[in-house]
Structures are given as C-alpha cells and as structure tokens.
Write a structure and sequence with these properties.
Number of strands: 4
Strand order of the largest sheet: 1-2
Radius of gyration: 21 Å
Order of helices and strands: EEHHHHHEEHHHHH
Structural class: mainly alpha
Distance between the termini: 75 Å
C-alpha cells in the first residue's frame, strides 16, 4: 500500500482529484475543437462546468452525510465526513443544467453539440478520483485473503475495488472517445448512464466499506444506479426517436466559427444595401 501523504502533507487523494479535473477540462477543450463547437460556447461551458464542480462537491458532502445519518441516526447529521460520487454527479448535473438554461440564449451553439464529449470528461475525472480513493484507503472491497490488499486503516486484506472501478472508467473513456471522435456517436450520455449504472450496481455487491442500506442488502448507490440506467434508456429513446428527428436541425445547431462569421458578414452586407 502506497502512502497517502507524499510531500509536506500533500495527500494523493487531493492530487488525483486535481489531476482528474485538469484532464477533464483538457478533454472538453480538445474535443470541442474536434466537434467544431464555437469558441464563445466553449468559454461558456467552461464557466458553467466550474460552477457545477464546486457545487457538486457540496452535494457530494450532503448526500454522504445523509447516508451516514441513515446508518446511525443517533450520531446526528454531520457534514464533512466524506463524499459520495453519485451525490456529486446528481448535484453537479442539476447545477450545470440550471446555469445552461438560464444563459443559453446568449450563445448561438447548443448543448447538443458538446453533449457527447461530456461523458468522456466525467470518465477520466472519475477514474483519477478512484485512484485517489485507493491511496486514501476508502471505497474498498470485501475481505479477501487471496486477491485482497492490505490498507493501513483496515485490519484484513480487502479487494481493491477502487482500482477495478478506475480500470472500468478508463476503458470506457477510451471507448466513448473513439465513438465521439471517429464515429460521431451522438448517444454517449445515454451510454454513460447505462454502462456506469450497471457497473456501479454490480460492484456494490463486493464493496466492503460502510455505505448505508435502504432495502434489504441493497445500498443507496444501487438505487441511484437503477435510476441512472432507466434515465439513460429514456434519454436514448427521446433523442433517437424524437429530438434528432423532429426538433434538432443540424444545420442550425452545429455551426462553426467560420459559418457564424460568414452569416454576420452577410447580414451586415444586407443592412448596407438597405
């Protein structure tokens, strides 16, 4: 087991979170260029993403505090005792959508053009976050003397489920990146919700850390996972059979900076003729 603190009490968990966020922003910037997203909309998305990340961390803390309270109500509702990814994802997504719909009319381009790249950014950020969990010794698996690893804060050898999840996330990052960059696949968000929802539901059965329980042996995260899968299927059906057929006009949504500049010049020329 590698040490959590690496230098002057700088902890690897925080380092991995920072690396993941930097990579996520890099992915959004690079992929948006490949998808011909207009520069002003890219700037807008970055500002919205920063707000979503900050408030998403707050949501992750609140949801974890709720989990802890469910497990031990007598201890009270205490904030600041850990994070939960699904809580942060839901809170961050809600903030992202609120900010986007509040200010979207100021920008020509739509969320639909950059949407396929967003799951790629989430995958890589989450993957590094899980490596951070491995260094911190949290989010570990059940006891297993054969395949388990020894963590300083745990008496028995346990499965390194953090690394299993990190491997899955990096593999899915590669798959979704290929789909969006090479195949122009439009349904990456639906794929993310279904794929991660199924994976998270299954890996919860071999998680050994205390995450609370809702009904029987199912954890709260498994209920969130079921919701993710259903939402992913619903979004796919809505996009494929409704939005892209009846609502979206690719010629209007997917405009490059050059196209916008040409339209601006054309409008200016028409005004001059008048």
């Amino acid at each position: 087991m590698l040490p959590d603190a690496i230098f002057l009490d700088v902890h690897m968990y925080g380092v991995m979170i920072a690396v993941g966020l930097l990579c996520a922003f890099g992915v959004l910037f690079f992929y948006s260029k490949r998808l011909n997203v207009t520069s002003n909309f890219v700037d807008f998305i970055f500002y919205v993403a920063v707000g979503a990340i900050v408030l998403g961390f707050g949501a992750a803390t609140l949801v974890q505090a709720f989990y802890n309270w469910l497990e031990n109500p007598d201890a009270g509702f205490k904030i600041g005792e850990g994070f939960t990814f699904l809580g942060g994802l839901i809170g961050g997504a809600a903030v992202f959508l609120i900010l986007y719909f509040a200010f979207r009319k100021k920008f020509n381009n739509g969320l639909w053009q950059i949407m396929p790249a967003i799951p790629c950014a989430i995958y890589i950020a989450h993957g590094f976050g899980r490596i951070g969990c491995f260094f911190a010794g949290c989010c570990y698996g059940i006891k297993n003397d054969t395949f388990g690893l020894k963590f300083p804060n745990i008496a028995d050898k346990v499965l390194p489920t953090q690394l299993y999840e990190a491997a899955f996330l990096f593999i899915m990052f590669g798959i979704t990146s290929y789909l969006v960059l090479k195949k122009k696949f439009k349904y990456n968000l639906s794929l993310y919700l279904v794929a991660y929802g199924v994976f998270r539901f299954l890996i919860e059965f071999i998680r050994g850390d205390d995450r609370g329980k809702f009904i029987g042996a199912l954890s709260p995260s498994q209920f969130w996972s079921i919701g993710m899968v259903l939402l992913g299927i619903g979004l796919f059906c809505a996009a494929k059979f409704w939005f892209y057929k009846k609502i979206a006009d690719p010629e209007k949504i997917y405009k490059t900076d050059e196209q916008l500049a040409a339209e601006k010049e054309e409008k200016s020329a028409k005004r001059d003729l008048k």
